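Ticket #4471: complex job returned nothing on first submit. Input attached below:
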Amino acid sequence: MNFESLCVLGLGYIGLPTASTFATHGIQVIGVDTNARIVESLNNGQVHLFEPGLRTLVQAAVGSKNLTIRNTPQKADAFIIAVPTPFKEDKLADLSYVTAAAEAIVPYLEKGNLVILESTSPPRTTVDIVAPILEKSGLTAGTDFYLAYSPERVLPGQILRELIENARVIGGIDAPSAQAGKSLYSTFVRGEIILTDATTAEMVKLMENTYRDINIAAANEFSRLAARFEVDIWEAIEVANLHPRVKILRPGPGVGGHCISVDPWFFVEAAPEQSQLIRTARLVNDRQPQFVIESLRAAAGDLKDRKVAALGLAYKPDVDDLRESPAIEVVKALISAGCQVDIFDPFDTTYTIDRANTCTNLEQAVKGAHIILLLVPHTQLTDIDPKQVTALARNAIVFDTVNGWDRTIWKDAGFTYYRLGDGKNR
Ligand code: SAJ
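Support reply: We reran it on our side without changes. The output follows.
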């Protein structure tokens, strides 16, 4: 099977790198996004999201004339759906982007085409939801066109490398569909390509992120136990991890991002009876911003009218992605507790939170602060020399939720230093 042209629907964190990588490997790619602003900015050579190396890659792809950006699909040998699957207020999966993308392909679908769903989706989405929509074309999935599910598994911050090097699972609705998917991705994937059925591939993706969520929940719960028993969780984890079969993850202000804090709910929605541990882990992680507030109160006393410099807003270090960020939840809770909050994130200096003051630089944020709160260990923040801050926030209490700073250095610079989950060094 030979796929020379490809249409990628959805130009976000996954679709854009995927479309660009295919284009720089010689495939004629049409990148489609329904957001007119994204289409316009990409056509002007601007990339609307931050990922190391992405701008250069997109420019190379567009420059080679192998990548064209449009707001509607067109005929192609293969189609990849890489749109978001967010959840709604009630944590139920919102598949409206997936169904809209599948509907958009229908008028262009031809015999022999391949359609791949990459969006993280509840089990059976490919077979029960996407196939019937595509069959509105009058063609039959499996008989007339190939259909497969192949989840993205790349880590934000390392997307370009992992896209090529990671193992890729391709689940076909039948064996020829999986094989067709392999022919397409072999264009650039150097990791192992594993073929299976569509529902197994959907479940693999959800299991990976759920497994991580449960493990982070354990770390977060251990941090609460350590505070209770006057133990330093960071010391305890370091020692426990010397055991050859133990690898405890890092506690922090909570779990964010568009994947790990969302995907486990797809299992809970689809099969609540069978997902009790998964649901509990989600609730433990969602409660962690509240634990930050409780710990801060225990360290600094009443929070009302205190001026807090909240450093870092993204859902994890060295990315600009703020989706489902626990840091934002902490800031909102501080505001509800009556604090005056100055927010600063070096990757997004324009983001606003109701009643918080957005700062464009570190100095502005820490000036006159009673509390300096580290929420995300962006390299630019962990590299801060406390001496830079001393004159701006004399006698401030430093509260580090991510173990991003060195206690001794901050104490030597005259600050009172606390760390989340450290009940020993108070
Ligand atoms: N976090 C902790 N403690 C840790 C590790 C992470 O609190 O020890 C927090 C982070 O701060 C962040 C959240 O968890 O808020 C998620 O971060 P992450 O780096 O664990 O994962 P993501 O969401 O950036 O990417 C995950 C990856 N999945 C796995 O590692 C199993 C990635 O491979 C997936 O492709 C991605 O989800 C996705 O798109 O599904």
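The chain has two domains: 5-191, 263-425. Closing as resolved unless it happens again.
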